[in-house]
Amino acid sequence: MPTNSTRGGYTVPGLEEEAAATLVADLQERLTALTDLHLTLKHVHWNVVGPHFIAVHEMLDPQVDAVRDMTDDIAERIATLGGSPVGTMGAMVAARTWEDYSIGRDGTTAHLGALDLVYQGVITDHREKIETASEVDPVTEDMLIAQAAKLELFHWFVRAHLESASGTLSTEGETTEKGAAEAARQAEEA
Q1: How much is the pLDDT for 6?
Q2: What is the DSSP string of 133-170?
Q3: Predicted TM-score (pTM) above 0.90
Q4: Residues 108 and 50 sit within 8 Å (Cβ to Cβ)
Q5: With contact defined as beta carbons under 8 Å apart, do 107 and 56 qualify?
Q6: Exposure string over 123-158, b if 16+ CB within 10 A, otherwise e
Q7: Most buried of 76, 115, 124, 165, CB within 10 angstroms?
Q8: What pLDDT shows up at residue 1?
Q9: Quick one: which of 1, 5, 32, 31 has its CA closest to 18?
Q10: Helix, strand or coil for residue 3?
Q11: Neighbouring residues of 148: CB distance < 8 A, sequence distance ≥ 6
Q12: Average per-residue pLDDT in the chain?
């Protein structure tokens, strides 16, 4: 399996090798997560059905493109820091700490309920890596902050479909994609 450690002690001028190695490892985690998110969003795009199909189908394509661009930025930052980004599917699957997206062909609301949880996880982890980067590298920190802003916007787009006018979220308290999908589906039918 390829490794993403820094090569030959090189990193950008003014950054210690140990700090660079930490950043490379953190960025590799983000690369894996965002690659998975990109593919999950495309999976939903292909498998969403129902009365709001076209709205959700078309809402997801810009998200897919933006997240794919984020992966490229992260991979290039890893290389800039002296690391070697790992982008092979086998290595990424072996490194991830979550299961595959669990919803197949289903209604728009069910998919959006599940995506709400996916985005929550990705954003939470991104914010943790921002904290780490803030201590050693403002360039990496800025990149991650800009990405978090877009991810949070996309999450808001998803949540807007799940929220009532009174502010109640149909998936409130759900901790699994299938549970969130079912809760969203039931709220839509009520």
Answers
A1: 52
A2: HHTT-HHHHHHHHHHHHHHHHHHHHHHHTTB-TTS-BT
A3: yes
A4: yes
A5: no
A6: bebbeebbebbeeebeebbebbeebbeebeebbebb
A7: 115
A8: 41
A9: 5
A10: coil
A11: 123, 126, 127, 130
A12: 94
Q: Look up residue 185 and give its DSSP letter.
A: H
DSSP 85: -
Sorted by sequence, the CB contacts under 8 Å of residue 180 that are 6+ apart come out as 113, 114, 116, 117, 171, 174
* Helix (H) / strand (E) containing 107: strand 106-107
The pLDDT score that the predictor gives to residue 7 is 55
- Specify the length of the chain in residues: 190
Q: How far apart are CA 74 and CA 185, in angstroms?
A: 35
Set out the domains of the chain in order of their start, with CATH numbers: 17-189 (1.20.1260.10)
Nearest to 36 by CA among 104, 154, 121: 121
The low-confidence residues of the chain, meaning pLDDT below 50, are 1-3
